[in-house]
Amino acid sequence: MTTPVPPEHHPARWQRFMAHRTQNMKSSAIRELLKITQLPDVISFAGGLPAPELFPVREIEEACSYLLKQEPKLALQYSTTEGHLPLREYLAESMAQYGVHHGPDSILITTGSQQALDLIGKIFIDPGSPVVTGRPTYLGAIQAWRAYEARFITVPLDEHGMEVERIEETVGDQPIRFIYVLPNFHNPAGTTLPEERRRLLVEIARKHDWLIIEDDPYGALRYTGEDITPIAAMAPERTIYLGTFSKTLTPGLRIGWLVAPPEIRKPLVQAKQGADLHTSTFDQMIANDIAQRGILKAHIRQLCHVYGERMNTMLDALEEFWPEECVWTRPEGGLFLWARAPETCDTMGMMEAALERKVAYVPGVNFYPDADGGHCAMRLNFSNAQPDQIVEGIRRLGLTLKETVAACTPTN
Ligand SMILES: Cc1ncc(COP(=O)(O)O)c(C=O)c1O
């Protein structure tokens, strides 16, 4: 039973004083769902969490004591908004290996790449501004930009990511502010945008003088196939590239970065000054220490090995336990795959039955900015469960799906 809210704490109590934009703000469905799925006996494919047992705890502990002994005055002090220079130098060098040749002065360290999405909203979105995203797209971007009252124009995805060839017909002559893409191991769809589509996107963006946001938290987590040139390497003059240590090191440090042409980076720096002055100096120095000592690269190799195995375990279990009417993506990396039941099924409605069997996923509708699709789809995370739990969870979901498919298939 829920306790009644006393009148002085009623949700509408201060509403008349609140900015118009708060009316568009919603709690993330995933954060809400995580509360249920964190119950100990639930097998959760719902979150996007890295495997905590792989966190390099000892190395982080060493980095902390080294920094507190050797550089306490720097590590514990206020710092510049742009971010710790040695870390930006490291990032510039490592991105150059992928063909992104921006120097450290084009980089801004952010408090997770979620902050980068928020800052982008802050400088580019007026109420009603049209922005282009995929359908589906990353929930955190929808959440960040809804708060700035963006109007979402959505382009469908197929098994190779955004159908770039449909952007022009979808946008028409609307004055869009930017196109948001997730080229590597899309969250939630698990797709990878092939090189030809990236080149076509750049060609279209150049023709119309459009800006591209390339969000790439998973690019380093590739388990099969070859790396593909980042869009930021193809069109450095019009791409804001977002990176993060959340999936390759630990999300708790909250260290991300963005790379942008100088004329864009400057207002982003100003926007960040108003938000948090700068990202935690100490955390930036920890990430830098781990990266400079070569620990990060070794850690990423380990993650690729473990997550690649978990992904294959999930794919095999899906083949074994799921009804033949269901389909799913076969990602080349990242943390997620995207599965679909027949069109007549409702994965939101199925959630209750799944939770009764103590297994969780995220219903597909959450990833559609206009909630106009994804009702028969779901996102499954494979990084945060052990292989035996993955098999058992997929088996339980398979049972639930068989019942759902039988119940929603029309009989003549
Ligand atoms: C596509 C995408 N962008 C951004 C983020 C935010 O990551 P963080 O703020 O932890 O760097 C996430 C996290 O799951 C993500 O999947």
Quickly describe the structure.
The protein has helices at residues 29-37, 57-70, 72-75, 85-96, 112-124, 139-146, 167-171, 195-208, 231-234, 262-276, 281-292, 295-321, 347-356, 387-408, and strands at 43-44, 107-111, 130-135, 151-158, 161-162, 179-181, 212-215, 239-244, 255-259, 327-328, 336-340, 359-360, 362-363, 377-381. It has 412 residues and is α/β, with parallel strands linked by helices. The chain binds pyridoxal-5'-phosphate (PLP).
Question: Any descriptors?
Answer:
single chain; 412 residues; alpha/beta; Aspartate Aminotransferase, domain 1; Aspartate Aminotransferase, domain 2; 2 domains; five-stranded mixed β-sheet; four-stranded antiparallel β-sheet; 14 helices; 14 strands; 41% helix; binds pyridoxal-5'-phosphate
